[in-house]
Amino acid sequence: xxxxxxxxxxxxxxxxxxxxxxxxxxxxxxxxxxxxxxxxxxxxxxxxxxxxxxxxxxxxxxxxxxxxxxxxxxxxxxxxxxxxxxxxxxxxxxxxxxxxxxxxxxxxxxxxxxxxxxxxxxxxxxxxxxxxxxxxxxxxxxxxxxxxxxxxxxxxxxxxxxxxxxxxxxxxxxxxxxxxxxxxxxxxxxxxxxxxxxxxxxxxxxxxxxxxxxxxx
Length: 217
Fold this sequence. Notes:
mainly beta; four-stranded mixed beta sheet
């Protein structure tokens, strides 16, 4: 401070500058993540950050959930926290939809080749059910094509198909074949017959039906 006659003196004080302005937290639009075959998925804070800013600088970003399992299938509200270099923070939220699109792993029995049952034009065949596994769980395993185990299967090839459905509606199909071979020889039964020669030609004719005792006369 200087007076009108040129005399001066000084003093000092302290000015403290504070930053009390929270950063601008910006979240991305809702998006979807897929579970892997083991039933897991993960995201990072960078996946949620849509360009958060602060005049003095952003120190850190974090989210309240990074890992997802089968229990999280559906919509999940995720919170992003942005902290600036002076300790101010703000939050925003977005929706992460977790989907399970991995079908179950299904396994059918091996194809079977059997002989016909004695006296039957077919065979009674039994077989094990298909099996299936899925990270999120199996809802059902159903035979969708072919006769049930324990049925009489006709000669030839019959397709058997199973469908497995997991708890989230994904499906897998497997199939195998039941082959029934006719290995039983027919029983030939003959009968004696008497035929008269034609008086003009001196010949007579017979057919297999005349000899077959089942169909003969």
